[in-house]
Design a protein that fits this description.
Layout lengths: L1 E6 L7 H15 L3 E6 L13 H4 L12 H10 L2 E9 L2 E2 L1 H18 L3 E8 L4 H14 L12 E3 L10 H27 L16
Parallel strand pairs: 1-2, 1-3, 3-5, 5-6
Antiparallel strand pairs: 3-4
Helix pairs in contact: 1-6, 3-4
The protein binds flavin mononucleotide.
Flavin mononucleotide binds next to helix 1, strand 3 and strand 5.
């Protein structure tokens, strides 16, 4: 079983990375292989709502000059995925938001019933908003999100400060342990119990 962790911070070795490293260590202890991909400093455009991905081969994004399609392919193959983002102005840092919009618009159908988790880091205020925004992607991707004892928000400003947030670190570790359990449980369950039948999504706009 393989899990990919996405570092959405521009800082390669900041608090987001520390949160993801902490989770990766717990997963590896449970025999789950991991890979951390740093996307937060990439030049990534936002979604332009062209809908090219809806009909394109492999449902790839129209922009082929950045890493989105390559990372999306990896995530589609992975058993589990974890998304980490710093809080910028009480929300997901910009590059990560561009990444998430395009990733889930192109690849949601491939993520159905995969195990997925999210973690936000913050200096002081807005971490829960960031976490909520990340969780919105996971919910619409029909992923299974493991629990923890508290919301997945870690506190810190400068690199490594998150280490001093004892409760935050414990919450992150407990989520990783739950993640490993849910991954194994669903893997075993999927062999015996088929996934619920999927129905075509009936879109209904509010003006008609
Ligand atoms: C542009 C920018 C905006 C930020 N906005 C907030 C904010 O709204 N609330 C907050 O508490 N911290 C804010 N911060 C601080 C970061 O969330 C904090 O330093 C976090 O640990 C960064 O994560 P990283 O080390 O993974 O990059 C901001 C930092 C930057 C650079």
């Amino acid at each position: 079983m393989h899990t990919i962790l996405i570092n959405g911070s521009p800082r390669a070795k900041g608090n987001t990375r520390l949160a993801l490293d902490t989770m990766a260590v717990e997963l590896e202890k449970q025999g789950i292989s991991t890979e951390i991909i740093h996307i937060g400093k990439e030049a990534l455009r936002g979604c332009i709502a062209c809908n090219y991905c809806k009909t394109s081969p492999d449902h790839h994004c129209v922009f082929k000059d950045d890493i989105l399609n390559e990372v999306a392919d990896k995530l589609r193959k992975a058993d589990g995925m974890i998304f980490g983002a710093p809080t910028y102005y009480a929300g997901i840092a910009g590059t990560m938001k561009c990444f998430m919009d395009r990733l889930f618009y192109t690849s949601s159908d491939y993520f159905r019933f995969k195990v997925a988790s999210a973690v936000a880091v913050v200096r002081r205020t807005g971490g829960l908003d960031t976490l909520h925004q990340l969780q919105n992607f996971l919910a619409l991707g029909e992923t299974i999100t493991p629990p923890s004892q508290y919301w997945m928000v870690g506190y810190g400003m400068d690199r490594g400060e998150l280490e001093q947030d004892i409760e935050g670190m414990q919450t992150i570790k407990k989520n990783a342990k739950a993640f490993a359990w849910v991954l194994k449980a669903t893997e075993a369950g999927k062999k015996n119990i088929p996934l619920p039948e999927n129905e075509e999504h009936q879109f209904m706009n509010f003006i008609h």
